[in-house]
# Entry
Amino acid sequence: MARRMNPYRTPALAALVAFALPAAAPALAQDDFQQWLTQSAKADLSEKLAVHNELWVRFSDNRDGLYEIENSLLIGYKLSRKVAAWAGYVHNPNYAAGDFTVMERRAREQVTIDNFAKLGGASLSARLRFEQRWRDGIDGTGWRFRPYVKLAIPLGGKTAPTLNLSTEPFINFNNTAFQTSDGLERARSAIALSFPVSKAVKLEAGYLNQRRFVRGGRDTNDHALTASLAVSF
# Structure
């Protein structure tokens, strides 16, 4: 008689469960439903240098439509085959029901580490991101840290989809008029499928939970359907 395989002994499946549960559990709260759309483009300028632009557009049911557009432009320098350092600027207008409310500007620095570990056929990547935030007409500079880890699980050959599981906490280093709490302020957990359209184009769609930690009150959750288009040159 054939032995019955325990799926939790398969590293990739065990990791899938470990990453998926934090994203699924808060979904019961159903605080706000959102839609996040993104388009990114990356171009190599030389063997070591690259430029990357990413545009996010976010919509919210509770905020009656468009509430944020975030565009980041970064220059990267490859330190090794797997490690790169990036720095640049983020332009981040905020809206309420589609009407402009305030402009946020950020300086961003980050280190990316690609495929630094293997779990069966899956691979782990990480990003260490630092940001300095300013809002027009409001005093203060908000400093924060955003470590990010992603587990990529191939579902077949090179042309097959990949299952991506990720987590990203937001840790504030100080308080300002607009960054009102220090320490762990929110956490994002996401699950998505990415589809290679060609060597240079990739589509991705999935679900992201953003949990905001409210001191002295009830935590809130944003439940976002995500879709992205990535192009590389």
Remarks:
- The domain at 7-232 is CATH 2.40.160.40 (Porin).
- The helical segments are 11-24.
- The longest helix spans residues 11-24.
- The longest strand covers residues 99-119.
